[in-house]
Amino acid sequence: MTVELRGNFGIYVHWPFCASKCPYCDFNSHVRHKEVDQFRYAAALIRELDYYAVRTSGSGRRLESIFFGGGTPSLMDPRVVSKILEAISCHWSIDENVEITLEANPTSSDSLRFAGYRSAGVNRLSLGVQSLRDATLRTLGRQHDAAEALRSMELARLVFPRLSFDLIYTHPDQGEDEWREELSLALSLAADHLSLYQLTIEPGTAFYSLERSGRLVMPLEERGRTLFDLTQDLCLAAGLPAYEISNHARPGSESRHNLIYWRYGDYIGVGAGAHGRFFEKSVRYAASAFRLPETWLSMVEKNGIGLEQDVPLSPAESGAEFLLMGLRLVEGIDLDRYRRLSGTNLNPERIASLEALGFITRHKDGRLAVTVEGRAVLNRLIVELID
């Protein structure tokens, strides 16, 4: 199998701590009532970076993206961010146009903190706004109000060259006119990237328990499709077309880090619960760390790494992951690359059948892409293509 380094290499740094747990969130985030020893946690992150530097050495890969995610990374002391970035720069060759993103919540956003992150090297902020309506923010369990979110966006625009923010829609009782008004306001706020997620109910969350008990009633699927179509139309008209199912950007402002994921590039993840996919010699590995911060920290301090899983992927597994990630993108996938990764070709009769049904399409360059209709049944399409 040909090694697919492709030059697009990224590092994900997970900060698992939050001030509170949102009822819809199934991310690896943890509320700690005692003060977190940030510099101890940072030292462990740096030890994991040391470990991965050895495993990815000699590849010639240039680092194109660093992403601080969480949790709530804007709870981090800017000096911690600086130490981590310094450690990264000691191990890898960094592209001159590297994208360094940090996720922030409006409740932990202030001018000094933002200035500290910018001084450390962060050049892109991803702000977890989630809604511009106070009533919706209360429903979603957020700790900020709409005015605080708007102030955070204004401050971020003054400090960072690039700004993205998130919104959640298709929540209970949301009407078409309400979403049109809210999204139109969001599009007027001069961010170059928007992540617009339909609310989903995930097992293990507070919303999951509420829905099971009948105290939370989600909109019908038809309402979700109506709001999804409205979202595509408004964003396209405002110059932020979709480049992925839930992500919209001005041309050239797409998230480079997320494109590494969706294009099935190489990345490592450090921190509790972080994941990675990377080639070591000729083998692609799937790595994931222990989720509980205390367990992860103990393992790193004892062994230099906090991995719970570190396994080679078979060609079939790599091919399936490539399809699952790449078909989320409007640009679709290169079928020749699928063959190189998986060692086989997709069934042409299946492709023709799904194309006739309007679920997939071929671009002029031969790439295979999912249509708007197909996005609603993407997981099923993957099964059809590889079964």
Task: Give a structural overview.
With 387 residues, this protein is an alpha/beta fold. The chain has helices at residues 38-55, 78-91, 111-120, 134-139, 146-159, 176-187, 206-212, 221-237, 256-262, 293-303, 315-326, 335-342, 348-356, 372-375, 378-386, and strands at 9-15, 17-18, 30-31, 62-70, 93-104, 124-130, 162-169, 193-198, 242-244, 247-249, 266-270, 275-280, 283-289, 307-312, 360-362, 368-370. Strand 15 (360-362) and strand 16 (368-370) form a beta hairpin. Helix 1 packs parallel to helix 2 and helix 11 (315-326) packs antiparallel against helix 12 (335-342). The model has no long low-confidence stretch (mean pLDDT 93).
Descriptive keywords:
41% helix; alpha/beta
Task: Summarize the helices and strands and which ones pair or pack.
Layout: E1 9-15, E2 17-18, E3 30-31, H1 38-55, E4 62-70, H2 78-91, E5 93-104, H3 111-120, E6 124-130, H4 134-139, H5 146-159, E7 162-169, H6 176-187, E8 193-198, H7 206-212, H8 221-237, E9 242-244, E10 247-249, H9 256-262, E11 266-270, E12 275-280, E13 283-289, H10 293-303, E14 307-312, H11 315-326, H12 335-342, H13 348-356, E15 360-362, E16 368-370, H14 372-375, H15 378-386
Parallel strand pairs: 1-4, 1-11, 2-3, 4-5, 5-6, 6-7, 7-8
Antiparallel strand pairs: 8-10, 9-10, 12-13, 13-14, 15-16
Helix pairs in contact: 1-2, 2-3, 6-8, 11-12
